Amino acid sequence: MTAPVAPPRTPPRVAVDDTLPPLVIEATPTFIVSTALATRDFQDVHHDRDLAQSKGSEDIFVNILTDTGLVGRYVTDWAGQRAQIRSITLRLGVPWYAYDTLTFAGTVSAVDDGVATVDVVGTNALGKHVTSQVSVVLDHTETPDHTAQGNA
């Protein structure tokens, strides 16, 4: 999994058509099973390869609750520690099976009165896995610049 080293302390200056840095996540079997259990999703297709394959799946796959959490993380990693997600809508596409990677990409589609709308797409080897729209309240609290006030 690759990600920024740390979330930004202050939110980015945001404008329509801004793009978010990519986030790449590998779906190891341990990742899929642990996130399914963490979200209390005990469906066998998320932890038992034999049963998943007997139901027509290629392998075990990531559940939607994990997708929702990852989309939220992707946006808040970019928006800053104090940003607040107002809403997330998402649509699933192709499955995200074990041993595949997902790359998130995002674009700001609207900014209105401190609220940004971000379009997010998560793509894997099969195509678009998740398409989402996130409304996030941006925190514009600035860290005091002590050097400008002579308090260096």
Provide a descriptive summary of the structure in words:
The longest helix is centred in the middle third of the chain and has 16 residues, at 64-79. It is built from three helices and five strands. It has helices at 29-38, 49-54, 64-79; strands at residues 19-26, 84-92, 101-112, 115-124, 127-137. With 152 residues, the chain is of the alpha+beta class. It has a five-stranded antiparallel β-sheet, covered by helices on one side. The model is unreliable at 146-152 (pLDDT under 50).
Short description:
The chain is an alpha+beta fold. Helices cover 21% and strands 33% of the residues.
Task: For this entry, give a set of tags.
152 residues, alpha+beta, 5-stranded antiparallel sheet, 5 strands, 33% strand
SSE blueprint:
Elements: E1 19-26, H1 29-38, H2 49-54, H3 64-79, E2 84-92, E3 101-112, E4 115-124, E5 127-137
Antiparallel strand pairs: 1-3, 2-5, 3-4, 4-5
